[in-house]
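Deliverable D2.4 — example input (structure tokens):
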């Protein structure tokens, strides 16, 4: 009866900490996966840990102009650009590793998992034909 401990605050902190841990694990796995994909494509793996530059390298791997990244900073245009370029990026990355449309859909919706499959699987970089 005299206990006034707020269990809801402790529960909230536990949920927040658990969420942070899950996001950190997914982030680290994403970096590791991108590192392996870069190495398979003949690019330096360390490029995966440098923000913005990792997108430049990824665009080089899939045969897109890195200048398209400037669309990400244009107000209002960036919402459409992120959506459209992400679809193109997933499609071209799957094609660059000899995978089909189903794999591209997986790259779009479950990117960390499918990047790990690309990086650690037996697929080889075949390039992109223009």
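Example output (designed residues):
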């Amino acid at each position: 009866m005299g206990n006034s401990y707020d269990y809801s605050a402790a529960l909230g902190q536990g949920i927040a900490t658990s969420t942070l841990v899950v996001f950190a694990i997914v982030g680290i796995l994403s970096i590791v996966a991108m590192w392996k994909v870069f190495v398979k494509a003949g690019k330096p793996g360390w490029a995966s840990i440098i923000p913005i530059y990792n997108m430049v390298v990824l665009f080089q791997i899939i045969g897109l102009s890195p200048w398209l990244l400037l669309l990400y900073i244009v107000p209002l245009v960036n919402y459409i650009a992120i959506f459209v370029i992400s679809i193109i990026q997933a499609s071209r990355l799957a094609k660059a590793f000899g995978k089909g449309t189903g794999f591209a859909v997986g790259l779009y919706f479950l990117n960390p998992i499918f990047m790990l499959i690309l990086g650690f699987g037996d697929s080889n970089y075949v390039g992109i034909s223009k």
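The two ends are 74 Å apart (CA to CA).
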